[in-house]
Amino acid sequence: MKFWTKLLTALALCAPIAHAAPPIATLSLPGGKTLSYFASQPPNPTPISALIVIEGYPRDANRTFAAAALAAALNGQTSSPVIIAPLFQVPTAEAARFCHFPGMPGPTKTNALWHCGTWLNGAPAINAPVTAFGALDALIDQTLRRYPSVQTITIAGFSAGGQFTQRYAAFAAAPSRPVRERFVIADPSAFLYFNRFRPHPHPQSCPTYNDWKFGTENLPAFLSRSAAAARAAYSAADIHYLEGALDHGTGPGTAYRMLEKNCAAETQGRYRLGRGIAYAAYDRHYLAHGRHTLTIIPGCAHAVSCVFTAKAAAPALFGQP
């Protein structure tokens, strides 16, 4: 066990080798396209839970997967959950310029493709009749078919993956069979609000601050759910927020360069930690009235390898099946 813990620590924390890829599986999507994903091979062939982790920017599914695997090992999760990380692929040339992470495989000939900034909004693929949210719906259903013993599925996203997960929680399709579904939203750059309230409003200088993807006005047709229905679904969902205690300001480790800085995002606060604390307060007042949890992770800035592997994050990531 010590050997595997050391290996997983190296994979999650050491950028040059982080990124030896785990096994890749494939999911068939509409239009003859596919979604590739990393999948663990647990010793127990009948896991009772699944943890689906959503890559951050710049599409670091390998690093996110490694952090989740290390977190499971450190918390004694030796036989469950099965860990899965979807790869939202983009065209090769675009990835090379804007959103490629070391060790990540390029797209196959059959992969559905998105642009660097569209998959995290759940948008339609550019070469297939499926949205990013729809692809995750299909991946969850395939997981439930392949692992009929699974009783709980947790979708956990960090950074850009946190944005994806937070919005997905409002628009997710019902799973193909009854299962407990949980959502972990970690250090997103900005949030989806469900009314016109903002902690730092300046609507006169930002008239579109409540439009999608920061609000629920002018929702795109591909979401196929009203603002009221999305709010109800989100309020009822099993949601846990994680925020790095040091993910604040512009200093080293905060990934400030990649923070959303448009006027709609600025109405939510200046930095990630403040935005997360403000959103949790908004959630308590307007949405779930205390049923959703917020955990601030000591000693962590903007690093999935720190946040996911922290002891304080384990109850959100693994819960009780």
Characterize the structure shown.
The chain starts with a helix and ends with a helix. The protein is built from 10 helices and 8 strands. Helix 1 (2-13) runs antiparallel to helix 2 (61-74). An 8-stranded mixed sheet has the order 1-2-4-3-5-6-7-8, sandwiched between helices. With 321 residues, it is of the alpha/beta class. Residues 1-19 have low confidence and may be disordered. The longest helix has 16 residues, at 272-287. The chain has a single domain (2-318), classed as Alpha/Beta hydrolase fold, catalytic domain (Rossmann fold, 3-Layer(aba) Sandwich). The protein is 31% helix and 15% strand.
Helical residue percent?
25-40%
Mean pLDDT figure: 92
At CATH level 2, the architecture is 3-Layer(aba) Sandwich
Q: What would the principal axes of the Cα set say about the shape?
A: globular
Structural classification: alpha/beta
Q: What's the number of helices?
A: 10
Series of secondary-structure elements, N-terminal to C-terminal: HEEEHEHHEHEHEHHEHH
- Regions with little confidence, pLDDT below 50 for 5+ residues: 1-19
Strand tally is 8
Rg calc: 18 Å
Strand order of the largest sheet: 1-2-4-3-5-6-7-8
N/C terminus separation: 23 Å
The fraction of residues assigned to DSSP E strands is 15-25%
CATH level 4 superfamily? Alpha/Beta hydrolase fold, catalytic domain
CATH topology call: Rossmann fold
User: How many individual domains?
Assistant: 1
CATH class: Alpha Beta
State the major sheet. Answer: 8 strands, mixed
